[in-house]
Amino acid sequence: MKNNGIGISTFTWIITEDCNCRCKYCFVDKNPKKSNIKVGKAMIDWMFDPEISKDDKDLQLTFFGGEPLTEFDLLKEIAIYGREKSKKTGKNISYSITTNGTLLSGERLDWILNNDIGILFSIDGKKEFHDKYRVFADGKGSYDRAVEDLDKLLQAKPQVVARMTYAPDTIPYLFENYKFLLEDLHFQSCAPTFATDPYTELNEDEIKELDKQFKLIGDYEINRAKQGKKIAFNYIYKGIRQILVNKKLPSPCGAGKKYLAIGTEGGIFPCHRFTSWPEWELGNIYSGYINQELRDKCGKFNCEINEDCKKCQVLFCGGQCLASNYVNYKDITKHSQSNCAVASLQFQVAKRVYEEMKNDEQFMGQFRKFQKKDFKKSEITLGEIKKMLEEQNIILKNIAKVILDLAEDK
Ligand code: SF4
Ligand code: SF4
Ligand code: SF4
Among 213, 215, 270, 377, which residue is least crowded by beta carbons within 10 Å? Predict the structure, then answer.
């Protein structure tokens, strides 16, 4: 058996490590390799192999880089090949890209829109802040090119997520940039991330400033929520979801569980950020076999092996990004204290928004699907079910009694 663990349904392919930009905080290899058609087709065949995806019917593939749109023809050919495979096997396949947006125009944009490709769009906020870090190879800022066709994109696909990266010196402008993304560029959802490479521990003043910025974002989200708008800041969303589920995430993500990444040469890794570390290669798509023991190091990771995580009240963290932990400490289980402080601030904001809005039915509607899903999955005991039925029974008996009493009064 090629896959001795659970079926894999979510994949990322490093189609190229090359990029037309040179962002100052980029973690991608500076000696870029590119993938090719042979790897792409073998990867699709491997993904659809019943031993790999098992009973999973819906497969999801993200094209990642570098900048995936520098390899647009290859991307298109593999996406088409995947759809043909889908027709033959009866399994579905959906696609997404993570892009800097600078090549998302003309024929490429039309194709992406016509082929229902999901998009995570890297943009840091106002031009002056975006251009500080997100530059082309010649050192010029990439903002103007990135937003050139953004209106057309967001009109057709309002669900595109803005990936906003912030660094220590842009923390004081976090709220300003976030608000700009929503109000001026018209994104409806934003996934912020702290620039982790080169790694920086935040100092006390930076954490205080971050607290101030998150509080402003929290106030802003409450205001928007009262106007009937959905949560746009993804950590607030995740926080509220976990509060409702009332369960702590044991790990930060699906790396090594139902999610794996494929490198440019066909190597298999726990996630896209592990692809430059040969010691994390779980196998390759040609033999198809996955080193289950190595996969489980990520897939079965449980943050509660750490004493501080065991006591921690931050429900959505799961012990921080395993790849960042590895970059910083060469150990996926070891996390940074300043990242804990950031997670804790974000969770406090999520709690405040929840407390303020929990009785607003329209607002809570956006979380209903998670409540239902987790109810199905929850370990509810037979005793609890019996008790619920008894309670229902008492209510029904009371209703029947009232009806009878009314009938007798007549
Ligand atoms: S756009 Fe992405 S891959 Fe390209 S340099 Fe910037 S962070 Fe790196
Ligand atoms: S915030 Fe820190 S202590 Fe809490 S779960 Fe995350 S890594 Fe563990
Ligand atoms: S290990 Fe980090 S980068 Fe990889 S999927 Fe998890 S959270 Fe994302």
Answer: 377
